[in-house]
Amino acid sequence: xxxxxxxxxxxxxxxxxxxxxxxxxxRFENQVYGLARAMAGAPAEAEEIAQEAFVRAWKYAASFDExxxxxAAWLLRVTRNVAL
Length: 84
Description:
Elements: H1 6-14, H2 18-40, H3 43-59, H4 71-83
C-alpha cells in the first residue's frame, strides 16, 4: 500500500501514472461516491458522477493549488460541480 501524501499521489495521478491512478481512486472513491450519492440519490447516477469527477480531476489537475486546500477538498468540489 502506498503511504505517500495525497498531494504526491495526486501528482502521479495527474502525470498519468497508472499505478498512482489506481491508488488515488481507491483512496478517494468512498468519499467521492458518497457525495455523489447524497446529491444524486440514484446509485447509477452517482456512479456516473463519481466516474466523471475522477476524469475531470485528471483533466484539470493543473488547477489544483495546495495553498487553497487539500486534495480531498478539491476533489469533492469537483464532484459537487459535476453533480450540479
